[in-house]
Amino acid sequence: MNFFEFTVGTVGTVRALAQRALKKAAARPFIDTDDPVRRTVSILHPPALDLVVSDVFEHGPDGRTFRLVPTGGKGDRLPPFRAGQYLSIKGTWGGACVSRPYSISSAPYEALLATGGYYEITVKRQSDGLVSPHIFSTWQKATRVSASGPHGEFYHEPLRDAGDIVAIAGGSGITPFLSMAREIIHGDMEARLVILYGVRTMDEALFEKELIRLAGVAPDRLRVCYVVSEPDGTEKCATGFIDEGLIKKEIGDISDKSFFVCGPQALYAFFNSEAQKLTIPRRRIRWEVSGPNRVIGAHPAFPKKATGREYALVVYLDRGQKTVPARAEEPILVALERAGIAADSRCRSGQCGICRAELISGEVFIDPENDARRRVDKEYGFIHSCSTYPVGDCTIRIVSPEVLTG
Amino acid sequence: MNHDGVSHSSFDESTDVVVMGSGMGGLSAAAKLAREGVGVTLLEQNNMPGGFATSFRRGRFEFEASLHILTDYGPAENKGFVRKFFEDELNLGLPMIRVDQGYHLILSDEEIDVDVPFDMDGFIDVVASEVPGSFKALRQYMNLCLEIGRAIDYIAEADGNPDPMVLLKNHKSLLATAGYTAKEVTDRFHIPPKAVSILGVFWPYIGIPFDRMSFTIWATAINSVLTRGCYYPPINSFQISTALDKKIRELGGRTYYSTRVEKILVDRGKIIGVQTNGGRRIRADWVISNASPTTVYGRLIHPAHAVPRAAKRLTAARKNGISLFVVYMGLDRPAHELGLTHHEYYLGPDMDTQKAYDIGDMLVPHIATSALCPNHVVPGVSPPGTCELILNQSYGADVWGQVSPDDYFETKRRFARAAVGHVERTIGTSLFDHMEEIESAAPQTFCRYTGSHKGVVYGYEHDVWDSVIPRALSLPLEGYIKGLEFVGGHGLLVQGYSAAISTGRLSALTIMGKMKRKSRFTE
User: Fold this and answer.
1) Can you point out the beta strands (E) in B403-519?
2) A357-371 burial string, b = 16+ CB within 10 Å, else e?
3) What pLDDT does residue A3 have?
4) Does domain A164-287 have CATH number 3.40.50.80?
5) Of B473, B21, B480, B7, whose CA–CA distance to B292 is shortest?
6) Which fold, B13-55+236-317+464-522?
7) What's the rounded Cα separation, in Å, for the pair A160 and A283?
């Protein structure tokens, strides 16, 4: 007699109950795999989006907005998003498998339009960049675009943030605020928004007409204040920087207001010190992810011995390994991309953790101020490759893409 | 090609055992197999290990996704099976912190506001002083729970193959009570109702009403919390996942992340391998599934007609367990300044488990909440001057499926607002004014990250007919497809961290036993 036979004999009650339940089920002996929860997930968070450019709008010589729609036409829907979120655009350019995050500048309601939803992203051409020149030269109407779903934490959350938003924008950092402004004016977002938009010259300002038009619709809910740092004397707006004095003058009482900051890296450091002077509580400031530090070599803690150096990076993949060159002042992710390894990435700012990799050996530099790894990852030697710099020969293991190019 | 259309020769690689899913069950199974020198390949659809045992960051905060307390770990002098496995078998190098604080229970309508310690004598003393006259009945009741606990320990120590004579001789009470509900057994002890309400602090771990809950499960839960105490990893549950993941590779196992099993290949009633989302085929005679039978029998077995009717029947008879709605808060004040004095809270109007369960089947914000403030136990869990508070509410598996994608974010926000407001009022604190980060997770979130059917967190409901003993009974029956084993919340010991760890380890032993028999047979 084994344990099971024994138990069957002893626990008759259980057996009877089980029989009853099974008998009841016998009437419908099929497994109900219908899962509305999973369906919702696949709409909200698709692993990838296939989009197509339906329109292109120019903003001077170096700015372009691309309207992206689903490839399946009007019946094909886009995932809803929160104003301030971004898309990660993926592509292979010049042999490199690359991703770039772009804030969505259109409004959430526009993604859900019954007549055909869309996202818009605005790209600024950086002549020394890897991706934007390619986008400018190759994207036109009908170009197919591969993207992630909408991501990011840079959105207004009423349970946490004040109803009064002060946007601190610099250069192309205006795009998430345009999305918020459009949503507010459309009536789908309950908040009041004042945008302090820092530009070098008014020529650099994006969406000037659109913002003026929107503010004209509901001046009590939206106000835009340009701040020109290199004035030519013809401006009618504020000049200088978005500093303590300007914020006090334009905003007045800062209590119970939430500050949202998006722009070039210099703006972050500058606003951080102004915010301290203004004693804005930490929970009232939201920072958009800032992208990789372009001048990491200038960081005071960056090992000087590594400046200008290139190292050997051994990459363990699920199957096999590859040795690729890696420049000390470029994130490890960039070395992978240059080598044609389609490593997954998203925010490229060290925050989201999609590019998590195991550092098996070697010396790396991670800016301690911008180290958003989880505590366990720090302890067990995992890195975010988008914000980790090799300062010696390194060996890493990455979550492997199934398809390798190059 | 054979008659099922699956070619035996078209595999890209091979292994002894494929472990599908890297929750606690899958990781434990893979680690045990690797430890014993069995070739194991772990496949996980997410880009990192853990399933529910994970953490995530928002701003300067990092939140534990699911773990409140780890049971069956125990002190060095009275090791529970989790500790024996982690320390003695795997040498995992992960010393746990003892949670020396109990539960704070507030039942506003019953006027109960009490600290419940996590040790047997302390617990009985507290209840006896709150409810005069309850001491004797409670002591007897707890003795029964202790006996059940010892019996379960024995079954675990016998690696799932207990000697029936030993059970009959030494663990009569297990067999005597196995067919009864927690309510049926508890009623016989005539414990005063208020004391029963306090006992109810353990019900959120189980999540079905007293009059359907198996007494075995109930007594086991009480026993494991009160005799071996509660533990917590030094950082969070993702530490357990990461340590196991590293250990598997260190012991020669293979781990593939961002790799989903799309087909479990079956030929003539036997597992022959799996096929991944990338189209790769991995040959294996054994598959350990951390995914539920609903998913496996319903979607993954290939060809679909290889699923035996009996497997369909049992799967169809089972009821999905609960899912959760969770609110994670990062607050910009230390816990003591906000009056958050405890690691764990249970806050509700009363201990009417039927009512709490029924409300869970409606899409309305709940009142019954269990809350975790990890700052008291885990040093450095949040930056200096801050604290975290995590709220859990249980919902039926089908409730959140009603929410349309367009309403999803707003619904989550509405439910989170209600939950936070309720906790503010019950504890008498201020949370909204100190909110630096807030995130909420619905069944959709759990489905997204773990692949769980309908975002269910608690496996199948362990009705009396589908509890530990009956599942042990049906274990051989569940070998419907030769070479297929289930672990995790759907396995033998039902849901929970320690149960999943234990079923993982047991499934590894089961497979090794069958491998041995098979090799003897073929020799």
Assistant:
1) 435-441, 484-486
2) bbbeebebbbbeebe
3) 41
4) yes
5) B21
6) FAD/NAD(P)-binding domain (3.50.50)
7) 8
Residue B50, classed as helix, strand or coil, is coil
The Cα–Cα gap between B386 and B45 comes to 34
Residues B232-265: pLDDT tens digits? 999 999 999 999 999 999 999 999 999 999 999 9
Q: pLDDT: is B163 or A63 the higher one?
A: A63
Nearest CA in chain B to A344: B47
Domain boundaries, chain A: 42-147, 164-287, 296-398
What size, in residues, is chain B?
523
- Least CB–CB distance from B298: residue in A26, A33, A400: A33
Most trustworthy range by pLDDT among A26-30, B144-148, B416-420, B472-476:
B416-420
Q: Which residues of chain A have pLDDT under 50?
A: 1-11, 403-406
Burial A134-163 (b: 16+ CB within 10 A, else e): bbbeebeeeeebebbbbbbbbbbbebbbbe
Dist CA A8 CA B329 (whole Å):
48
* pTM of the predicted model as reported, rounded to 2 decimal places: 0.94
Q: Are B287 and B293 in contact (CB under 8 A)?
A: no
**Homologous superfamily of domain range A296-398:** Beta-grasp domain (3.10.20.30)
Q: Which residue of B64, B211, B314 is the best one to mutate when testing the A interface, meaning the one whose CB has the most A CBs within 10 A?
A: B314
Stretch B138-163: mean pLDDT: 86
pLDDT at residue B186, as a whole number: 93
Start-to-end C-alpha separation, chain A: 63
Mean pLDDT of B353-375: 90
Name the most confidently modeled range: A261-265, B199-203, B330-334, B367-371: B330-334
N- to C-terminal Cα separation, chain B: 27
Q: Which residues of B touch A13 (CB under 8 A)?
A: 178-180
Residue A38 near chain B (CB below 8 Å): yes
Kindly report the nearest CA distance between residue A356 and chain B, in angstroms.
8
CATH of domain A42-147: 2.40.30.10
- Which tokens sit at B165? 């004579």
- Whether residues A344 and B161 touch (CB distance < 8 A) is answered with no
pLDDT at A15: 56
The torsion angle over the Cα atoms of residues B487, B490, B494 and B496, rounded to 10 degrees, is 70
Burial readout A280-290 (b: 16 or more C-beta within 10 A, e: otherwise): beebbbbbbbb
For testing contact with chain B, the best of A1, A2, A3, A369 (most B CBs within 10 A): A3
Look at B179 and A80 and tell me if their CB atoms are within 8 Å: no
Complex ipTM: 0.93
Per-residue pLDDT at B3: 47
Listed residue (B16, B15, B31) closest to B280, CA to CA: B15
Rounded CA-CA distance B427/B106 in Å is: 8
Q: According to the model, what pLDDT value does residue B6 have?
A: 57
Could you tell me the two tokens for B321? 């367990």
Domain ranges of chain B: 13-55+236-317+464-522
Sign of the alpha-carbon dihedral angle for B218, B223, B225, B226: positive
- Pull the structure tokens for residue B51: 């399933």
Mean pLDDT of B136-165: 87
Average pLDDT over residues B182-197: 93
Scan for tokens 């297929």, then name that residue.
B484
- Structure-model confidence comparison of residues A67 and B461, the more confident one: A67
Contact A11 B56 (CB under 8 A): no
Q: Token digits for A254?
A: 């800062």
Largest CA distance in chain B: 74
What is the DSSP code string of B147-165? HHHHHHHHHHHTTT---HH
What local confidence, expressed as pLDDT, does residue B109 receive? Answer: 92
